[in-house]
C-alpha cells in the first residue's frame, strides 16, 4: 500500500473490549500520527466512529483505512490478520500475537510479501523501568534471576471465559508479560530446563506455573506465575548481580538497586506502543519477536502437568 | 573452522544407542565423505573407534574431529550442541532437534556466529515417496488431508523411559515424523486450530493426539497419532485432491494414486541425511527447519488435555 508516509495512519480497530477502552483509545486519541476511522466488533462500538460487526465489511467499506489493531482473543486473531495483510493493511497485534507460533510465523512472511508492517506488540516491554534495567544488567554480571508474577485472577480477569479455554493461555496471559521483559533485559538468551503447570480440574488452561530456565553460561532464572494471589499482588523481577540486587517492581514501573529507588515514572505503555507502530510503518519494517510466546509453548511442551482444585469465578 | 572442503569430514558421534547402531553407523560407513574417528557415550562404544564418556573429553582429545552427530535424548542435546558449536564443530542433530524451540533458535544463531553448519535432521523427509508426493500436490488442488500414524509403542520403544518423561514428547516422537513430511509436501503452511492430547495418568507425555489444522485457504488437515495400536500398524497420509486420492503409505515408502501403486523404493533415509549433511558442510550453510517442532509445541499449548488409563511397558 503506497501512501504519504507523513500523513496520519487511517486506523481501524477489531475487537472493542476492555483493553481497547482502557488503553488503545486514549493512546490513539493523543497521538497525531493516527486517525481512528472504523471499528469492527461483535458487540462493542466507539462513539462517533463508523462501526461494523466483521473485519470483512470494514475492509470492503473503508478503503481509506490502511492499518488495523487486532484486539480480539488470540484464538481468533490469525484469520483477521490474514485478511488485513492480504488486503495490504499494516497490522498491530495485541499480545499474545496468536494462539500458535506457526500462524504468527506465516503472518510475518505474508507481511513481508505484501510490503506492509506487522507489529507483535509486548506492552510490558515499554514499562518505565525496563530500559534502565536492561542497561543495568548489560554493565554487570548476573548471578541469578527470580521472577514473581502473582495476581488475583478474579480481580483482573473476572468472567473472561476465553482466557481459561485451550489457547487462552491461563496464567501465562499475565506471565507472558513477565517473559517479554525478561527476554528483553537479559544480555543472553535463556532456555527452559524444567516446568510444572497446575491446571484446575475444570479448566483447559493453567492457573499457576513454576518455570526453571538457564542461559548458555548456566545462569539460573526461576519464574513463578500464580493467579490465586489475594492481598498484595506481585509483578517483580529480582536479579542478583555483581553490582548488587536489582529489583524491577510493579510490572516494570519502578527500579530499585539494593532496595534504593532508582527510577519511578508514570506508566505509559500503550502510548509507547502506538509510537512504535507508527515508527515501523514509516520505516517500512516489521517488529515481530516471538521469544516470549516461544517460551510459553516450550513450557507447555516440556512442563509436567498437575491437576489442582477446580476454579470458579 | 577452515578445512579442505574436499577432505572427508572427521566425525564424532555422541549417544551410542539403538538408532546409532541401526542407522547412523551403516550410513557413515557407506559414505566416503566421512571418517568416524570418535564416540562419546555413557555406556555405548563402537568397535575399533576411540571412545569417551563425555563430549568434553572427546573435543579436548581429538582436535582433528570437525563435526559431531548428536543422538542422545533431546533433553540433553542443547548442552552438547552448544559445546560442539562453540568449539567450531559442525553439528548434526537427530530429531527432534531439542527439548525446546528456544534452545534450537539459539543454536542456529551460534552456528552462524561461529561459521559452522547446523543440521536439524528430519529423516522421514527422505523417505522414497516424499518428493513424488510433493510434486503431485504441487500440480493439483488439495481438498483435505488425513494423517494416520498409529503404532504399538511396546514394540517400537520398549522400556524407553526418556520418551515418557516431560520433554520426551510421547506419541509426538513418531508423530513429528509425520509432521515433518506434511510440512514438506503441502504447498502452503498449516496452523493448528484445535487438538486433544491423551496422557496416561502415570506419565508426563501423551500416548495419543488428535490434531486439527487448516491452511490459509481453509483446507483441513486432520492428524491422528496413537501409540496403542496393536496388529496392523499405520503410517499413512491420505490426501483428497482434484487429481484423485493420493496415499503416501508406510511412512513415506510407497505412493499410491487412487490405490494404484505409483512408487515403491527401498528405504534409504539415513544415507540421504548424511549426504545432505556433507552437502551443507561443503556449502558452508545450515539447514534448520523448525516447523515440525513448532507444530508439536503449538499442540501442547493449544491442545486440551485428557487423562487416560495408566501405561505400563
From TrEMBL, chains A, B:
Domain Gfo/Idh/MocA-like oxidoreductase N-terminal positions: 10-119
SUPFAM superfamilies associated with the record: NAD(P)-binding Rossmann-fold domains
Entry-linked InterPro entries: Gfo/Idh/MocA-like_OxRdtase_N (IPR000683), Gfo/Idh/MocA_oxidrdct_glycsds (IPR050463), NAD(P)-bd_dom_sf (IPR036291)
Source organism, top-level taxon: Bacteria
GO terms, molecular function: nucleotide binding
Protein name stated in the entry: Gfo/Idh/MocA family oxidoreductase
Lineage, highest ranks first: Bacteria, Pseudomonadati, Pseudomonadota, Alphaproteobacteria, Hyphomicrobiales
Amino acid at each position: 500500500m503506497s501512501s504519504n508516509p507523513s500523513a496520519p495512519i487511517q486506523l481501524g480497530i477489531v475487537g472493542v473490549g476492555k483493553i481497547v477502552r482502557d488503553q488503545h483509545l486514549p493512546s490513539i486519541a493523543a497521538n497525531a500520527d493516527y486517525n481512528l476511522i472504523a471499528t469492527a466488533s461483535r458487540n462493542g462500538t466507539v462513539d462517533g466512529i463508523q462501526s461494523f460487526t466483521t473485519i470483512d465489511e470494514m475492509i470492503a467499506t473503508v478503503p481509506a483505512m490502511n492499518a488495523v489493531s487486532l484486539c480480539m482473543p488470540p484464538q481468533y486473531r490469525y484469520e483477521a490478520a490474514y485478511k488485513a495483510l492480504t488486503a495490504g493493511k499494516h497490522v498491530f497485534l495485541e499480545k499474545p500475537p496468536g494462539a500458535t507460533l506457526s500462524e504468527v510465523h506465516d503472518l510475518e512472511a505474508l507481511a513481508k510479501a505484501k510490503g506492509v508492517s506487522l507489529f507483535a506488540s509486548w506492552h510490558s516491554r515499554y514499562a518505565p523501568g525496563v530500559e534502565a534495567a536492561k542497561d543495568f544488567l548489560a554493565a554487570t554480571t548476573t548471578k541469578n534471576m527470580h521472577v514473581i508474577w502473582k495476581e488475583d485472577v478474579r480481580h483482573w480477569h473476572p468472567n473472561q471465559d476465553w482466557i481459561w479455554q485451550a489457547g487462552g493461555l491461563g496464567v501465562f496471559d499475565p506471565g507472558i508479560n513477565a517473559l517479554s521483559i525478561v527476554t528483553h533485559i537479559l544480555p543472553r538468551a535463556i532456555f527452559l530446563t524444567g516446568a510444572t503447570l497446575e491446571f484446575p480440574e475444570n479448566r483447559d488452561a493453567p492457573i499457576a506455573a513454576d518455570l526453571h530456565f538457564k542461559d548458555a553460561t548456566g545462569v539460573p532464572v526461576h519464574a513463578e506465575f500464580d493467579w490465586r494471589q489475594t492481598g498484595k499482588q506481585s509483578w517483580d523481577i529480582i536479579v542478583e548481580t555483581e553490582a548488587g540486587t536489582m529489583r524491577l517492581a510493579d510490572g516494570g514501573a519502578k527500579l530499585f538497586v539494593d532496595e534504593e529507588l532508582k527510577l519511578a515514572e508514570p506508566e505509559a505503555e500503550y502510548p509507547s506502543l502506538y509510537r512504535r507502530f507508527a515508527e515501523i510503518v514509516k520505516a517500512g519494517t516489521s517488529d515481530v519477536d516471538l521469544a516470549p510466546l516461544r517460551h510459553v509453548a516450550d513450557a507447555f511442551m516440556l512442563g509436567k502437568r498437575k491437576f489442582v482444585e477446580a476454579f470458579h469465578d
